Amino acid sequence: MPDCDFENKLTNYAGETAKRLMETDFKKLALIAGKLIETKQTGASVFTAGNGGSSATASHMVNDLAKGLRVHNRAGLKAFCLSDPNALVTCLANDFDYSEIFVIQLQTYAKPGDILVAFSGSGNSANVVNALKYAKRNGIYTIGFGGGDGGAMSALCEICLLAPTGCMEMLEDMHLMYEHALITVMREALKDAFDIEIIYRPALKNGRPGFPFGSVLFDFDGTVSLIREGWQQSMIPYFTEVIMETERAGDYETEKDNVTEFVDMLTGKQTIFQCMKLAEEVAARGGRPLAPAEYKKEYLRRLAERIRGRKDGLRDGSLKPADFMVTGCVEFFAALKSEGAELFLASGTDEKDVLDEAGLLGVTEYFGGNIFGATDAQTDCSKEAVIKNILASRASDGGDLLSFGDGFVEIELVKNAGGYSVAVATDEKRRAGIDEWKRERLLSAGADAVIPDFGNAARLMDFLKRRV
Question: Which residue in 55, 134, 315, 452 has the most C-beta neighbors within 10 A?
Fold first, then answer.
C-alpha cells in the first residue's frame, strides 16, 4: 500500500473541523435550546427531518430528545423523526411524490405551536423546503441546521444555524455536535424545571377528564413550609450523641447512619415517635433511656435555636413568607379550592406550632379548621386519624382522596386508604429542583407521582384532571 500519510491527514481533518466549529454562531444554538425547552411547558411536539446523513442526524436527535432528556426519570420531549417510518416514507414516495413525504406527515400529525427541525447540507432539498413552507403557513415553528449560504431553507426558518464549512463531511459532523451540545445543556437546565414524574396516573372521573378528588391532604414541613428546613441537622446529631454515650455503641458514622434511617422512616408521624425509637435504641445498647418526652424537649430546644431568626423575621415583617414556602403552593391551594376541593393540613409537628407557623405564612385561610398536628394526649399516628376522619365524613372508599407529602408516612397511609399520593421531593436548601435522595425514598414508599414543587399550578391541575 502506498504511504498516504493517513495519520497526518486524519489529524488535519480533525483540527480543521474543530477550528471551523468554533466559528459557530453559538447565540443561535442557545436560542434553539430555549425554544426546545419551551415544549416542556406547552406540550408541543418536535418533528425532525432530513435526507441521507441528515436523516441519520434527525433520527438521532429524536432519540436524544425523547430518551436523553428523561431527567429524574420524567418524560423527555415529544419528538418524532419524519424520515424514520420506512414503510410510510416509501409508501408516500411511491403513491405521491418524494418531495411530499414530509409535508403529508405534518398534515397528519402536527398542530400549530409544534416545532419542525430540518437538517440539510444544501438547504435546497425539495422535500425539506416543502415541509418548511407548509410549517410556516400553519403555525409550526421552524428551525434549520444547514451550511454554506443556507439555500432556500434559510429564508423559511425562524432560526437557521449554518455550519461554517463548505465540506459536507465536516458539516454533518458539526450538525451532530450541535445536537449533542443541545441535549447536554438542556438536560442540565431541566434538572430544576417543573415537571411531573408519573408512575401511575389518577383515575378518570366518571370515565372522562375532570377533577376527581373531593379531599386534598397536605403535609406541612417540607411540603408547604420551609421554616423548619434543616430540622434533621438538629435531630440526627443529637440522637447520635445520645446513642454514642451507651455501653455498646458502634462507631459514630455507623450509628449516625442508623439514626438517619429510622428518623427518615418515621418522618410524618409525631416527633414523639422518633424519640420513642431513640429510647429503644439506647436500651438495645445497654443504656438507660430517658422518657421519650425528655428527648423531644431537648430536640425542640435545639431546633428552636436554629429557626428562631426565621420566625422572628416573619413575625416582624423583615422576612417574606414566600421565602419560607415551597414554590407555588399558595397558587395551587387557590386552584384546588376553585375545583370545590376541601383542603386538610396534617403534621407530626406539635399542633400549636403548626397553627402558629401556618399563620406566619398566611395559609390558614385555605384550610379553615382543617389543620392538625401532634398533641401530648395522642399516642397513635395523628395523620392516620385525620385520614380516617376524612373518609368517614365523606363516606368515601378513599378513591377521591389526594395527598401531597415529603415523608414515608403520609404516602403509605394514603396509598393504604385507596387514595392518590404525590411526593413533593423539593430540594429545600436550594429551593429549586429535585432532592434526588428524597425522591428515591418517596418512590420506595409507593408514591404515584413526584413533583419538585407546585411551581406550575396550571399544568399540575391539568395532570390531575387527566388532560395531559
Answer: 452
Q: Which residues pair with 451 in a beta bridge?
A: 424
What is the distance between the alpha carbons of residues 309 and 359, in angstroms, rounded to a whole number?
Answer: 16
Contacts of 202 (CB under 8 A, 6+ apart): 212, 213, 402, 420, 448, 463, 464, 466
Sequence-separated (6 or more) residues with CB below 8 Å from residue 12: none
* Separation of CA 223 from chain center: 15
Structure-block grid coordinates of residue 385: 386519624
Helix or strand (DSSP H, E) at 348:
strand 342-350
Tell me, yes or no, whether 1 lies in a domain.
no
What are phi and psi for residue 126, nearest 5 degrees? -60, -40
Q: Domain of 144?
A: 6-190
Backbone angles phi, psi at 287, to 5 degrees: -90, 170
Alpha-carbon distances of 237 from 102, 155, 380, rounded to whole Å: 63, 64, 26
Which of the listed residues 316, 348, 380 is the one where a domain comes to its end? 316
Q: What are 399's three cell numbers? A: 378513591
The 10 Å Cβ neighbour count of residue 231 is 22
20 and 157 fall within a common domain:
yes
Q: Residue 347 has which C-alpha cell?
A: 403534621
| Closest CA relative to residue 128, chosen from 109, 95, 150 | 150
> In this structure, are 102 and 135 located in the same domain?
yes
Let me know: does 373 contact 348? Beta carbons within 8 Å: yes
Which of 404-430 are b and which e, b meaning 16 or more Cβ less than 10 Å from the residue's Cβ?
bbbbbbbbbbbbebebbbbbbbbbbee
- Residues 197 and 309: their CA atoms lie apart, in Å, by 35
Q: Which three cell numbers stand for residue 447?
A: 408514591
Residues forming a β-bridge with 350: 374
- At 163-208, the pLDDT tens digits run 999 999 999 999 999 999 999 999 999 998 889 999 999 988 888 8
- 3-class secondary-structure state, position 228: coil
